[in-house]
Amino acid sequence: MHSYRTQMQAGRVRAASFSTCRSAHLRIPSAVVRRNPTLERRLGSMMSRIHASSTSTSTSVNKRTAATKVNAVAGTETVEAPTSTTSSPSKIPQRQLTFSEEEVETRFASTTMDRVLTYSTHAVAAGMLVCGFSGGGAAIAAIAAVLGYLAADAASGIFHWATDNYGDGRTPVFGDVIVKFQGHHLQPWTITYRDWENNVAPICKGALAPAAALLALAAVGVLPPALSAFLGSFLGFVVNSQEFHKWSHTTNDNNLPPVVRLLQSCGILVSRKEHGAHHKPPFEGHYCIVSGLMNAPLDGSGFFKKLETAIHERTGVKPRCWNEPDYTFLEEPHNQAWRIQ
Ligand SMILES: [Zn+2]
Ligand SMILES: [Zn+2]
User: Fold this and answer.
1) What is the CA(164)–ligand 1 centre distance, in A?
2) Domain residue ranges in the chain
3) Which of 18, 28, 70, 99 has the least C-beta neighbours within 10 A?
4) Position 174 pLDDT exceeds 50
């Protein structure tokens, strides 16, 4: 108010420093202002509002600045949850925003084992498709392969829903996967650093042995060709679901092959917009990460809601999506695997 009064008495109100004021300069002769009490009151009120807005903006900026620090040892920028959480409903543990080149090369690059698992699983999927298309009618095999593609999308959604909502690092077999899916919500950009083989190898590791057994059955004619085509397609799309997921987080179009951008825009692969809806409130749908085509029937029919209610009625366990996002459980010692990704 002092600065306003000083300037008004000088016959000039400078508004250039306030971004909320549209006029760059507001010049009012002091004699005019003195003769017009209404104008003086209105100008005083306007400047009070501008001052209040400016003070509140700078306070929030200071809060954000206080919550950010540079970790000089790791050479990376990290963010800590502010001590006061009044401005945000979610509780966010410390997370890593950027990675050095060395970290990218060591943490996200594929290993020899990743490549062996990935190429072997793709060879099995290709073998099942060959059995499917060579053992019977190509049209039936093609329909079965399309059904396999849709089933892979639904399976990716059901698995994603389960890991997002239930269990933690102590859950048998899936503990690490569960906390890594939660870690993805905290720092979704890390997936874009991954090599293809590094990204898909964990799923290949679980799928390779049963898939190889099924291929053996298909090769000796125990599995019908249509089922073999279905399973070959299902396997190929399921193990690559994390790669399609990665592409949906790749914000720079130059980092994606044009064919991928085309397939995303056609809805054949999950698009940035479709998967982006999963990362926005109310955080309770859009789980499918192959094409996202099954999101509409699964979310629209209330499939997950009915399942959540049935589980709650039988076990008393509530899914995480029934509450405000709260990631503080990731700070517990048994949930630290989310940081190692
Ligand atoms: Zn999720
Ligand atoms: Zn995501």
Assistant:
1) 5
2) 1-47, 101-339
3) 70
4) yes
